[in-house]
Amino acid sequence: MNISGVLVHARPEKTEEVARRLEALPGVEVHAISAEGRLVVTVEEAETRMLADRVVQVQDVPGVISAAMIYHHYEADENTESAWDPVPAVLRTESGNEEASK
Question: Are 73 and 4 a contacting pair, CB within 8 Å?
Fold first, then answer.
């Protein structure tokens, strides 16, 4: 599961409408709204590509001036054996560089 925090800046006179439209998008939740047109939003999607597409959809909502992803977290779910390992297997040898020097 990918979870992202997005700061959305909307036209102040369109803030409520923008919030309604955002809440209608799958995986999108609005947590806070300011009078100046700023919205704190989370986006949840299973795949990273889908998450990126959803953030683009947020940006395309009429009345949105900008949408900036300010936080991203990946969490393995129960269907995934283990979380993604950022260290390549070649670097996880007993001597440390045994495979890398070949």
Answer: yes
